[in-house]
Target: Asparagine synthase (Glutamine-hydrolysing)
Amino acid sequence: MVGVCGALGDHAALPPAFTDSVTHRDEEERVTVDDDGFSLHGSFHSLLAGDQPATAADGDVRIWVWGDVYGYDSGSEHVARSNGRGGSAAFCARLYDALGMEFVAGLNGGYALVVHDVAEDTVSFVTDRIATRPIFYTRADDGAFVFSSASQSLAAYPGIDTEFVLPYLYEYLELRRVFGVKTPLDGIEELPPASVVTVDLDDLSTETWTYWTPSYEPVDKPFSTYLEEFTETIQEVFAEWTDDDLDYGLLLSGGSDSRLIQAAMDQPMAAFHNADFMSREAKIARRAATVNGDEFHLLERDEDYDARLLEDAPKISNFSGWFDQAYFSGFEDDIVENCDMLVAGLYADMLFGGHPFAKHGISVGDVGNLSLPLRRSIDSIDDYIDFQMKDAVEPLSYFTESFSLQSVLRSNIRHQGDEIVSHGVRYGSLQDLVMYGDFYPMGGDTDAIFSRTLMQMRPYRTPFLDNRLLDLAQQIPVRYLLRRNLVNAAVTELDPALAEIPHARTGVPLKYPFPVDFLGDTLYGFWRKHVADESPPEPHLTHAPWPNRQELIRAKTFTEETLYAQRHLLEGLPFLDFQGALDCYHEHCDGVNNQTVLYSLLTLLNMPATQRAHDTLERSSLTSSEHGVAVDGGHSRPSGSSE
Model:
């Protein structure tokens, strides 16, 4: 996979098993540095690699870039990077010469930087605003500071034993993510988002500077003003991004987020849609591709597609999402063959819709539960925890240690003055945690594995994470996020023909105002269920982009087969229970919905780190010991201990 890894310290080394973890395709550009006390290996997309490292400060500073820098915001204007596709490192070097390390506060893009200051004998790691390209770190037995963009690969470094921090593992199993910078791997954490972490090579001490935090500060302006700013900004973003000499690929759904990209991007694209058959959503996506003049590619999953993802995807998991959320990984060759760069509409709902909010709801009979566009207040940390726990399945029948999700979350989310600290990350207020905790950093997202697997295939961008749109999103009042649809309105402004096409879920063309769209969602659901004759070919298939996971578990055998294939892990790791896992599966087959905790378990069982934890336990002949609740700033502690 593309990414970086390395080690700092007197005995820093680059064993092949370690460096292989950040190599994905043969055509990637590889860079290796093995200096005294500083070792680094990077694998970069050839389109973006350029000449690395770039040098600054008369050669005393070397800069590597994983990912892509789009430009620099001085505070008064945004200056697009214009020095070629692979010029990110050179661009950063020029800014360093002009501004020093403070230049990173104005960087715009999806990147991680490694900056080696030879004169000062330091190495600095820089993450973008939401850590789209993560870097994980730990300490080896000899004291070396070891880092990697793939958390599981750190266990392949000599002198690092793999053990689990059980409360964080429990959090992953329940929520398919661990918030903040924490991971379930003992001693391994993620570098914080929007930060510079500087390591002194003399003593390997660290210093952290966080240059940005999201802050929700709504400004009361007319919706029309926000619409104008939104459409102008997204057009500006694409005008800077696009290159007539490149072929672009778009992940095209039947919704509106990807359709806005079609409307704003002034060139044809290869439109990829992932489905089990030519479903209702696939037909809408094909229609949008045709209207826009894009070549439509139906990436049709076969009956064993999810089972194959279960074999492969857990290897690159960073404990944020399930194996099947590497949705497009099985079609990598098709995607690589048809485009140079990938674009997707991910995170539009997080930033410009009501996704982060707890909402009031009502039952509408056979149609299901209807989420109303009315915000339910979250006034305390306990309210926030209750909201996160709404789908929890407790107790976990396959987990032998006694935990409650509430106690794990409560021990990791606390007030610190006027701020909130959640799992090692600071938020300016409870409201900021509610608004941004799901993706600041990106690892807090329940399907971060989706976007991070896209990054492996081709250079990948989503416009909604451009700094200019992140800044705009923090100003939009709640009433517009909940009861207006900025994305639909922008499509209507930019391309009326695309706005004439219905949304696949609501059945309502995007051109109609929010009340019509909201009502249509309910009525269309009733019509589809009781009037329309459009039953999918199998009960586990749907007209949405992804299968019905609950039914897929009952229809396919890969869950039970995996439990038996990994029985040695379920029986050999003292915190897991084989019979409990079978009971959980059989309960689900009998009608109980255990899908969430089963998919988390399946992903865990096929992770290399889990096998390594089992091997470490066997080697040391350890038995289960007392585990308490993990807390910020430390590892597992006995219950009742204080910070």
Q: What stands out?
A: The first helix runs from residue 16 to 19. The longest strand covers residues 61-73.
